[in-house]
Amino acid sequence: MENKGKKRIAVALGDFDGMHRAHRTVVTGADDVIIYCVNNRFSLLQRSIFERRYPNAIFADFEEIKNQSPIDFIDNVIIGRLGAGIVLCGFNFRMGKNAMWSAMDLRKHLEEKDIWVRILEHVDYDGKPISSTRIRSYVMAGDIESANDMLGYNFTFENEVVGGDKRGRTIGFPTINQHLPENFIVPKFGVYESRAFVEGKEYKAFTNIGIRPTWRVDEPLCETHIFDYSGDLYGKTVRIELIKYIREEKIFSSVDELKEQLIYDKSGIV
After folding, report:
1. For the chain, which domains are there?
2. What is the C-alpha to C-alpha distance for residues 248 and 174, in angstroms, rounded to an integer?
3. What contacts 46, CB < 8 A, 6 or more positions away?
4. Closest CA to 83 of 47, 63, 55, 58
5. Closest CA to 213 of 242, 193, 189
6. Pick from 10, 135, 214, 232: most CB atoms within 10 A?
7. d(CA 33, CA 222)
């Protein structure tokens, strides 16, 4: 038993798109886990935020591994590159070209090589398993509160503040404008209660995501009014968390009508 008395290197395998509550049962299944992201699409959690939260993550070159056989992936990556002595994965993990191997196939092969395998069971929310697909559907439907519950944190993104038409400041509601990250899931258009993080400080806010039908834009834009903040944020990176869906976008017949709605939106955020 050559591994007796020697600490085994633990490797968690998965897609980890969003690193939701079910994912975290996998990556916390052993001490000092290396997180190996097999095919992370970053549709629910940006890579920049992911890397800060999980500095022990390694991101696979999917083009390099997608056509490898399961045995080649095990020999070249899991054992050869990562030196795994323990492998953790979810019950629905699949690997190899055309996802030909299941988690049970992985366990059978690795245990023949004296590598321990822990297969983690699903985590339920409202009676059904949590999955990235399910969370994306809730985000697109505007049920951000349920999405946040399944994620285990508030749906969040960050990007550089870009120039806008500055109409908001003329009615007492200055906003910052940001594009949604590339390949990121687009939440249901509308207004959200949110939080803005500026230079390490948290502010209450509300955020409009959409095309602003009163003053239409060509592609979805994220506009955030930050409470009790004054300053120039152009060119700076601001992180936004969505808390609750407030209402759909709407066309306003006048600036006064828009201002009244914004006052009402703000009054409901405590």
Report:
1. 10-125 (3.40.50.620), 155-267 (2.40.30.30)
2. 20
3. 157, 158, 181, 184
4. 58
5. 189
6. 135
7. 36
User: What's the predicted TM-score (pTM) here?
Assistant: 0.89
CA distances from 190 to 126, 155, 169, 213, 215 (A): 25, 15, 20, 11, 14
Phi and psi at residue 263, to the nearest 5°? -60, -45
pLDDT in tens, 113-170: 999 999 999 999 999 999 999 999 999 999 999 999 999 999 999 999 998 877 888 8
Amino acid at 13: L
Q: How many whole angstroms separate alpha carbon 159 and alpha carbon 223?
A: 12
- Enumerate the β-bridge partners of residue 223: 177, 208
Tokens in use for 19?
Answer: 């690193």
Structure tokens at 5: 């008395």
Specify the DSSP class assigned to residue 214.
G
- From the centroid of its chain, how far is CA 229? 26
* Helix (H) / strand (E) containing 145: helix 144-151
Report residue 139 CA to chain centroid gap: 11
